[in-house]
Amino acid sequence: MLSDRDLALLTNRLQIPLIVQDIQSGRGMLSPDVEYGLHEVLSDYQPDAALLCIALSARKVAAANMHVAPTMAIMKMEADRILADYAELWMSHAARRPIHNDDIFETLENIPEDLEAMGELLEVNTAALREIDEDVAGLCEILAVQAKAHVIVAETFIEVLDQATGADDALPYADALPVGSNDNVIIFPGSYAGQ
After folding, report:
1. Does 187 map to a domain?
2. DSSP assignment, residue 178?
3. CA 142 to chain centre
4. Please, where are the H alpha helices in 27-165?
5. Domain-embedded: residue 181
6. Is 170 helix (H, G, I), strand (E, B) or coil?
7. 157, CA 20 to 30 Å: which among 8, 105, 116, 130?
8. Residue 176: predicted pLDDT
9. pLDDT of 88
10. Contact 50, 42 (CB under 8 A)
11. Residue 183 counted as domain residue
């Protein structure tokens, strides 16, 4: 189970949930520049970091808007489940602790499905929020778009990983990954732009 301290560290590390919190509380606004920036940052994340970031952000939106629709409670439960399933692995890799490849693949093969589910819940809740808070609805829309875009990236990555791996030994995950067509090593999971 993720401790409050770990949750705070993860939120601070990914930053976007903090921006969501500021906009939601009225300390910030969803200007076109902020909207563009959120899309750009999220699109640069690896799928696992994007999933965690989207889940943390959706959790904040849901917690503050439970009164809006019953689907908010469902979105919060799904975000909590995603954090429980992926955050520890992501934080272990970010701290450069060795991880077994078999454990990673079993966990990562569900990322596309979880991104898709999160995207659908965000879309439903975007519609519910439109009449109440246009900025928060806009945030949900950005998160939904990015979740759906990362499904494709995650599916491609898992397909490549499935073909390229088979070793049972423990290695730091980045060392076990295949080289892409542009000769850049994919550093998924536990990574994000700028790490």
Report:
1. no
2. P
3. 12
4. 32-44, 47-64, 70-94, 101-108, 111-129, 134-164
5. no
6. strand
7. 8
8. 37
9. 83
10. yes
11. no
pLDDT along the chain (195 residues), means of 10: 80 91 92 95 91 96 95 97 88 61 67 96 95 94 96 87 58 38 40 45
Model confidence, pTM: 0.79
Does a cis peptide bond (omega within 30 degrees of 0) precede residue 172? no
How far apart are alpha carbons 166 and 168 in whole angstroms? 6
Q: Could you give the number of structural domains in the chain? A: 1
Among candidate residues 83, 52, 34, the one with its CA nearest the CA of residue 189: 52
Cross-strand pairs, 100? 170
CA neighbor of 192 nearest in space, from 79, 88, 42, 83 = 42
Q: Which domain holds residue 123?
A: 4-176
Classify residue 151: in a domain, yes or no: yes
Pairwise CA distance, residues 129 & 59, whole Å: 15
Residue type, 133: D
